[in-house]
Predict the structure.
Amino acid sequence: MDDTRPFQLYVVDGTKRTLVARGTIFEATTILHGMELSDNKVNVTIEEVLVANTLVFVPTDHVYIVTHTF
């Protein structure tokens, strides 16, 4: 069974919706960086950044804008 699928990341501001990145969702991943993912979380990789300075919704110490995901 294939546990991946493509995704597109959009940011919504008022009535404007902007595509900022494309990537892959890894749905079967339950542990990420040694921590268990909660039920409403998934592992994703960003493969194409379209708007580099977009803020990441769940930032870390090292990743807080989309371009830092590379």
